[in-house]
Amino acid sequence: MAEVAGKVKQVIAEKLQIDAGQVTMEASIVEDLGADSLEQADILFSLEDEFGITADDTDEAEGLRTVADIVAYLEKKVASAS
Amino acid sequence: MSKRVVVSGMGTVAPLGPDVESLWSALLEGRNACRTITQFDPTGFPVRIACEVTGFDLDAFVDKREARKMDPCTRYAIGASDMAWSDSGLQDGDFDPDRAGVIIGSGVGGIQTLETQHTLLIDKGPRGVSPFFITMLIADMPAGAVSIRLNLKGPNYATVSACSSGAHAIGAAFRAVRRGDADLMVAGGTEAAVCQMALAGFANMKAISARNDEPERASRPFDAERDGFVLGEGAGIVVLEELEHARRRGARIYAEMAGFGESADAYHITAPAPGGEGAARAMSLALADAGIGPGDVQYINAHGTSTPLNDKVETEGIKRAFGEHARRLAVSSTKSMIGHLLGAAGGVEFIISALAVSRSRIPPTVNYENPDPECDLDYVPNEARESTIEHALSNSFGFGGHNAVVALRRFED
User: Interface pTM (ipTM) of the complex?
Assistant: First the structure.
């Protein structure tokens, strides 16, 4: 679990070129961390690649607001894939 | 009544120097930028040489987060535009952003991005393609990115005409200011096509010199032993400004842009129209637009690619447009030193021509060793020359038969 969260924070920090310390679980990707829509898609694609999963392109992926949302989404995907 | 347009800022990211002054000094010294390619391993390619940009520090202009969403052609354009803007001395309050635009030409836009992303598509499938692929690919993005960065809200687009893209951008920007649609325009060209596909493509069409073992002797415009151009990359961007607007803010003015002429060969996808007929028309139109005659011109910065066909046909075109006066012209090709910057050539060469006019110095055509009876004009061989220049032309001709000629006039207040 911590593994997923750690990776998510690392990828977000790298893509947005911000300090990893800013990427808290409560942080909103758009409002707090300032990602635009392309950067959001880029983050998600990278994470899918990292964890070897494919998003379903459902509303679910679009509803992800915070870092915690993304972590929960990926943990679910990783669990169902294995 | 049409307005007068002057050059109030210039910036280059080019082979031979990371800014305008170092490029200009190197050109006057006759230095050569052609080397074995370093940005990828050219082993196995029939041509392995190019004039690459070196010493350009993008981090000084753009933070990493933005830079990774930019193809090199956009990065070069940002660097050159920033330098041109800074050179112009323009500050907030000096101008109306709604009346300041950006037109930047490029032959192929984000071709390096295309190469990289295509490999990802093959290796990882459709979801391997970056969400930034499209915005990094399209050839208008340099113009868009510069307008975002400098907050310029006037006319904004790219011109595409292969090797005359940069010149066409400057011509379009000139007209916008002259017509009163804008008070100032950031204009020029950018190209970052020193990549595997372009190198292979140009080599297989036999357009580029294969002098791999003597790179510094490969680009030799007008010389009898020329065997093709040398691929170059970079960006050349200027600030064109309405004269009174520039005067009111005490701008330093390099030169006046006096006229622009354009035409099409309507002949062949690569070969120029025989006799230089299309080129001659563009030159004559530039003279007419500037309100001058052949005898008023002292210098032509030639297209001078170092291909067997261009150099011969351009010579014929100059004679056709200038008649007897052709013999009294100084005609030099700076592609002999920095190679062919494709879509950026028109921008960088405009800057070189403006400096020649402003500083009364003509950069040479280097590697001129074997006179060709079909190229018998004064090409300023090998050594730079001091010369007062009232008017200069800068020629750019592109695959597809596009001809674009700029006329510059010495400016004295």
Answer: 0.86
Cα–Cα distance, B75 to B57 (Å, whole number): 10
Residue with tokens 């950067």: A39
**Chain A contact for B130, CB < 8 A?**
yes
> How many structural domains compose chain A?
1
Q: Which range marks the domain in which residue A71 is found? A: 2-81
Q: Is B163 a catalytic residue?
A: yes
Amino acid at B373: P
The one catalytic residue in A32, A36, A49, A59 is A36
Residues 134-163 of B with CB under 8 A from A: 135
Asked if the domains at B5-248 and B260-409 fall in one CATH topology, the answer is yes
Task: Say which DSSP state B290 is in.
Answer: H
pLDDT in tens, chain B (413 residues): 689 999 999 999 999 999 999 999 999 999 999 999 999 999 999 999 999 998 899 889 999 999 999 999 999 999 999 999 999 999 999 999 999 999 999 999 999 999 999 999 999 999 999 999 999 999 999 999 999 999 999 999 999 999 999 999 999 999 999 999 999 999 999 999 999 999 999 999 999 999 999 999 999 999 999 999 999 999 999 999 999 999 999 999 999 999 999 999 999 999 999 999 999 999 999 999 999 999 999 999 999 999 999 999 999 999 999 999 999 999 999 999 999 999 999 999 999 999 999 999 999 999 999 999 999 999 999 999 999 999 999 999 999 999 999 999 999 97
For A3, B56, B302, B373, B392, the CA distances from B315, given in Å and listed in that order, are 69, 35, 9, 11, 16
Number of A:B CB contacts under 8 A? 21
> In CATH, what number is assigned to the domain containing residue A65?
1.10.1200.10
Contact B130 A17 (CB under 8 A): no
Is any Cβ of chain A less than 8 angstroms from the Cβ of B64?
yes
- Compare all CA atoms of chain A with the CA of B127 and give the residue at the minimum distance: A45
* B269 in A contact zone (CB under 8 Å): no
Domain boundaries, chain B: 5-248, 260-409
* Active site (annotated) includes residue B325: no
Among this protein's residues, is A56 annotated catalytic? no
* CATH 3.40.47.10, applies to B5-248: yes
Query: How much of chain B is helix, strand and coil, in % rounded to 5?
Result: 40, 20, 40
- Three-state DSSP at B265 gives coil
- Domain boundaries B260-409, corresponding CATH code: 3.40.47.10
Contact A23, A9 (CB under 8 A): yes
